[in-house]
Each structure stands twice: as C-alpha cells, then as structure tokens.
Amino acid sequence: MDQGPRLTRAQIAYAVVLVLFFCCLVAWIIGRAATPAGSPFDWGTAASAATATGTILLAFATGLLAYTTSRDVSATWESVRLTREDQAARNRPVVMLQKVGADATKAGGETMWKGNLQLDLVNIGHGPALRLQVSIRLKSDAPDSIKFARDSWFKPALLVRDEASPKLDFTVIDDDGAYAKLNEAPLDVLEIMGGYQDLGFTTRLPIVDGASGEEFPLSALT
C-alpha cells in the first residue's frame, strides 16, 4: 500500500528552524510594539508572544498530525478489507449441478405420482462448500390443484473437486386430474433449490446449473 511521501531529517530540521525563526520574529515585532519610546526592550511581552505563537503552531501541527494519522488508519483498514475480500473470493466454493435424473411412477390412482430426482453435484470452486442443502419445490406458476410433498438433502461439507449424488424423493398429487393422461410424471412443475456457505459463513451461495450457467433459487438453511 502506498504510504505517501515521507519527510527527511533535513526537511524536519528545516521546518524546526523555520518555526523558531517565525516565533522569534513575532516576539520581536510584538516586543517592539509594546515598548514605549526611550524604554528598554519589553522582553516579558516578547516572551509571552513567542510562547503564544509556539502554542498556536503546536496546536496546528497536532491537528495536522491527527488528520494524517486518521487517513493512514483509514487506508490501513481499507487495505485489510480488500485483502479479506480478495482472500474470500479466491477461497470461494462453487457447487455446480452436472446432471439430473428422474424416476417416477403413478401410485394410488391416476392423480398421484411418486418418484425421486437424482442429482450429480460437484464443487468446482477453490474452497469447501459448507452446510450444503438441496431440496425441490413446486414452481410459483404451478396449478393450484397440485399438491406436493418433498424431501431435502444435507451435507456438512463438500470439499474442492468432490462430488455428491443426492436422491430427493417427492410426491405430486393433482386433484383436478390434469396430468392423469401423462405417461411421465409432471416434472415441469418442480424446481431445484439449495444453497451453501463458504469458510466465512457470511452468506449463502446458490447452486449453479452446469448446462445453462444459471443460479438455482436459494433455500433457507434448516
């Protein structure tokens, strides 16, 4: 991080000499002004003027030092924040869905389907995916007549380049029988959701579809 220009010893010595000269000059001017004609030089008034001038300059220097120090501290904290964010980005996990398989059959009549989804997940990021959870749900635009029972899957950690193959059971019931004539389960009303966390546990990250690159909806951690 750039700390800005630094004063050399010669510059500091020059500044001290300049301040002393200025204080002496002010003291001489005020001492002369306070001395009546024909009287000895008023050293007391001159000394008081020099002290007051030095005090003012010291206060100004202290304020300037506090300002520059606060800027240095702010820059240091900003550097620490950027370093942490960069480290977190380098160690961030990325869980990708590689493949989805489905197996479902009719059960309990023509209006009920029971089955499961088989998911192939892999962590292609640079850090472990912690508290990984996957589930399925009805899409928001699914018919109101559809009833749905779902399963969820949880894994404490999925390490870098590790794979997992969760199987999620589901039951779909269509009270209106709109899907009764289908030979396959109405999987178009279902969607995958899930999430996980990185080592910082700061936020939940979405699972990515390997085919489209889109992110699946985040699920609340339970």
Give a brief outline of the structure.
By secondary structure, the protein is an alpha+beta fold. The chain has helices at 9-34, 43-90; strands spanning 95-106, 112-123, 129-138, 146-150, 152-158, 163-164, 167-174, 190-197, 204-205, 208-209.
How does this model look, in words?
- By secondary structure, the protein is α+β, with helices and mostly antiparallel strands.
- It has two domains: 82 residues; 115 residues, Immunoglobulin-like (Sandwich), CATH 2.60.40.
- Helix content is 33%, strand content 31%.
- The strands form two sheets. Strands 1, 2, 4, 6, 7 and 10 form a six-stranded mixed beta sheet that branches. Strands 5-3-8-9 form a four-stranded antiparallel beta sheet, with no helix packed on it.
Give keywords.
about 220 residues, Immunoglobulin-like, 2 domains, six-stranded mixed sheet, four-stranded antiparallel sheet, 10 strands, rod-shaped
Secondary structure elements and their pairing?
Blueprint: H1 9-34, H2 43-90, E1 95-106, E2 112-123, E3 129-138, E4 146-150, E5 152-158, E6 163-164, E7 167-174, E8 190-197, E9 204-205, E10 208-209
Parallel strand pairs: 1-10
Antiparallel strand pairs: 1-2, 2-6, 2-7, 3-5, 3-8, 4-7, 8-9
Under CATH at level 1, the class of the largest domain stands as Mainly Beta
For the record, the CATH architecture of the largest domain stands as: Sandwich
| Structural class category | alpha+beta
**Might you state the CATH topology name of the largest domain?**
Immunoglobulin-like
Task: Specify Rg, calculated over alpha carbons.
Answer: 37 Å
Low-confidence stretches: none
The outline comes out as: rod-shaped
Strand percentage lies at 25-35%
Helix-strand pattern: HHEEEEEEEEEE
Q: Compute the separation of the termini in Å.
A: 42 Å
The total beta strand count reads 10
Number of domains: 2
DSSP summary: helix tally: 2
Helix content range: 25-40%
Residue-averaged pLDDT: 80
Major sheet size, sense and barrel closure: 6 strands, mixed
